[in-house]
């Protein structure tokens, strides 16, 4: 591609290399995904061996989603799925919408950076494993594709976009029709009927025998899709047989009734160039078929591809958590599925439509649309929400008849207004819009309406989750100290990280309390649980400790007084706590523990070790519990690190070993910046990703003694 600035030439080079990879690997279907500029989506760029409609549910795949291509790019590794059974175990959502016998591999396309993913699929007849040579060849092909993408990027080519993916052929194994008349004569001499379909499903050849059995002449069949030109084949089961033949590359046979009562057997024989079909009357002597007949069943009369797409999107909607997740899913998957260029998602709030998310509109249009009354006459949104009946407007002329200003707001030319209703209660409205006129077929309207119900349920759940999350987060922030007091001669840093599962709230807490010019107190604790009850009890424990500490009582008495408070409250939750009294005049630190992990001590020479503090019982168990104390010298340069068990507890690991490893990391850490020191401890402990428990850390570094009183 060097030496040309023509993007079309660059695309041709890439397509040729991609097609060559598909051919040399023997794959029946190939797909090349490219990362979008934000790195959050994989966009289908090139497809081989299947029509673009087949890939519609997977044209845009979130990199965080549970799919082979997402895992490949996210983890930077080759993902192999050897059978449909393995697919069902590892990727149940993908298996649900791709229910065919197959094997596949997803490999990251990586050069100077990660560009995307190469996806290759084979029929299930291939061995359910990959050889080292195959892996090496695929990895080499990915590097070649990455080089082509890098060269193209220098010329401004190949941005990931919403455009329809390019469909290419593998360029091998295609048989010519020459001499055409000889082939036609051969087919005419065969008993029954013969016809050919391309990979898109269009009829490219039909014999006279097939015309007689199907009840249509050749002119009415050539170039059509069978389930469109023959209404008695307009059943998703029939289309599914065709999809199964294209994707699995295995022969498929089924029986169908031509009204009023003539039964026909249809046998499909696929390869990389298309499908050969044999049609014989049921009860005759059909040609041998090595594939078992696929079971039939009842289904609504809608396009099979749309049903799979609806199933795929429904499964995705069950996994969203917050409102922003719903908005992203609708924008990234549902908009492309229906070819829409614009989206407005609004919430019904106090008689007004509040826009919570949008795509494809200028901010000025959103400012005008946001906050409209539900009975607005500007757009059909309010009426659709009030009646619960979707509104489909195919062109601006129809919109202007009732809502003359609507086409002027966002510049769109076709709209689908989908009310979001759950349990008979309106929760909002989803508007899909188009840059040009768009005819909404009956099938498309039915699928959109069904999908609106699923969006409504997901949207309602997400709003409830966000409300609970905001409440919990606000409670957590109110209970933890907003800032730590300045103590002369003491550098301090602290951090709180919630568990990544649940409501981002927990019972871990810390505090630093000034006790005059010559003393201070430090406390850290952990209330059992990761919910609102734990956070509320944490606030009571922190208040109890603070009240007893300011009275000047010793550490053991502080814990005894707080313990009595909790036992009087009769709570079912238990609390661990570590309290330290720092006396800068006597240069002593006195510590007491209620079942809490020991603090770490680091000396000026870098030696770090746990402090031996004899633990007493957890708070809230025994009202008469006694808490032993321990003393250590408080010398300049000394550092104390208090932490909760979320930093050191790992399933299957010994707690003492984990604490020792944490002390080793502390000894090697640079103490110039305490916040960076905490970052390093968290990173090396592996707590920057998924966390089963919340974490609190409090670091105290004693630099110099206090100023003399007065």
From TrEMBL:
Domain GAF positions: 322-469
Function description: Primarily acts as an independent SigF regulator that is sensitive to the osmosensory signal, mediating the cross talk of PknD with the SigF regulon. Possesses both phosphatase and kinase activities. The kinase domain functions as a classic anti-sigma factor-like kinase to phosphorylate the anti-anti-sigma factor domain at the canonical regulatory site, and the phosphatase domain antagonizes this activity.
This protein's name: protein-serine/threonine phosphatase
Start-end of Pro residues biased regions: 284-293
Listed GO MF terms: ATP binding; kinase activity; metal ion binding; protein serine/threonine phosphatase activity
EC number assigned by the record: 3.1.3.16
SUPFAM superfamilies attached to this UniProt entry: GAF domain-like (SSF55781), PP2C-like (SSF81606), PYP-like sensor domain (PAS domain) (SSF55785)
Ranges where the PPM-type phosphatase domain occurs: 487-702
């Amino acid at each position: 591609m060097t030496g040309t600035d023509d993007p079309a030439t660059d695309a041709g080079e890439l397509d040729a290399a991609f097609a060559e990879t598909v051919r040399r690997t023997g794959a029946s279907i190939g797909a090349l995904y490219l990362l979008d500029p934000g790195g959050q989506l994989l966009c289908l760029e090139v497809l081989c061996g299947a029509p673009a409609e087949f890939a519609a549910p997977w044209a845009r795949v979130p990199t965080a989603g549970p799919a082979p291509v997402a895992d490949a790019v996210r983890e930077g590794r080759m993902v192999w799925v050897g059978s449909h059974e393995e697919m069902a175990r590892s990727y149940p959502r993908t298996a649900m919408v791709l229910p065919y016998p197959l094997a596949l591999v997803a490999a990251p396309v990586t050069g100077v950076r990660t560009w995307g993913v190469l996806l290759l699929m084979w029929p299930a007849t291939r061995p359910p494993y990959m050889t080292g040579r195959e892996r090496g060849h695929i990895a080499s092909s990915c590097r070649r594709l990455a080089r082509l993408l890098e060269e193209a990027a220098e010329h401004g080519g190949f941005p990931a976009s919403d455009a329809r993916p390019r469909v290419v052929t593998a360029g091998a194994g295609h048989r010519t029709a020459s001499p055409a008349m000889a082939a036609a004569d051969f087919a005419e001499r065969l008993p029954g009927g013969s016809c050919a379909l391309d990979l898109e499903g269009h009829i490219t050849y039909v014999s006279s025998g097939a015309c007689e059995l199907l009840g249509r002449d050749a002119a009415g069949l050539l170039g059509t899709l069978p389930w469109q030109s023959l209404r008695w084949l307009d059943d998703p089961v029939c289309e599914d047989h065709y999809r199964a033949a294209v994707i699995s590359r295995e022969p498929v046979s089924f029986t169908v009734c031509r009204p009023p009562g003539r039964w026909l057997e249809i046998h499909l024989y696929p390869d990389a160039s298309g499908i050969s079909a044999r049609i014989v009357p049921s009860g005759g002597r059909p040609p041998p078929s090595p594939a078992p007949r696929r079971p039939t069943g009842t289904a609504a009369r809608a396009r099979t591809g749309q049903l799979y797409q609806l199933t795929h999107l429904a499964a995705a909607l069950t996994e969203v958590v917050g409102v922003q997740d719903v908005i992203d899913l609708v924008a990234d998957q549902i908009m492309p599925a229906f070819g829409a260029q614009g989206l407005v998602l609004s919430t019904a709030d106090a008689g007004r439509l509040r826009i919570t998310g949008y795509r494809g509109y200028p901010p000025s249009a959103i400012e005008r649309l946001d906050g409209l009354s539900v009975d607005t006459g500007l757009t059909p949104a309010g009426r659709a929400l009030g009646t619960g009946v979707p509104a489909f407007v195919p062109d601006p002329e129809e919109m202007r008849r009732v809502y003359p200003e609507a086409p002027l707001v966002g510049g769109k030319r076709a709209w689908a207004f989908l009310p979001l209703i759950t349990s008979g209660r309106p929760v909002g409205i989803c508007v899909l819009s188009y840059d040009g006129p768009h005819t909404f077929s009956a099938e498309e309207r039915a699928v959109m309406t069904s999908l609106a119900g699923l969006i409504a349920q997901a949207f309602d759940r997400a709003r409830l989750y966000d409300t609970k999350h905001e409440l919990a987060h606000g409670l957590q922030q109110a209970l933890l100290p907003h800032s730590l007091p300045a103590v002369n001669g003491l550098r301090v840093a602290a951090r709180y990280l919630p568990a990544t599962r649940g409501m981002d709230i927990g019972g871990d807490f810390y505090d630093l309390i000034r006790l005059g010019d010559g003393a201070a107190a430090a406390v850290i604790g952990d209330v059992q649980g990761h919910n609102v009850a734990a956070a509320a009890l944490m606030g009571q424990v922190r208040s109890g400790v603070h009240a007893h500490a300011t009275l000047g009582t010793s550490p053991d008495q502080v814990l005894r007084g707080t313990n009595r408070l909790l036992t009087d409250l009769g709570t079912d939750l238990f609390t661990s706590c570590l309290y330290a009294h720092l006396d800068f005049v006597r240069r002593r630190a006195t510590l007491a523990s209620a079942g809490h992990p020991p603090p770490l001590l680091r000396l000026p020479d870098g030696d770090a070790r746990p402090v031996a503090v004899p633990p007493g019982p957890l708070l809230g168990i025994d009202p008469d519990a006694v808490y032993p104390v321990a003393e250590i010298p408080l010398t300049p340069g000394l550092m104390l690190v208090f932490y909760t068990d979320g930093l050191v507890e790992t399933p299957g690991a010994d707690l003492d070993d984990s604490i020792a490893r944490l002390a080793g990391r502390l000894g090697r850490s640079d103490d110039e910046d305490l916040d960076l020191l905490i970052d390093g401890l968290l990173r090396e402990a592996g707590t920057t990703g998924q966390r089963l428990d919340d974490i609190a850390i409090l670091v105290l570094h004693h630099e110099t003694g206090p100023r003399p009183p007065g």
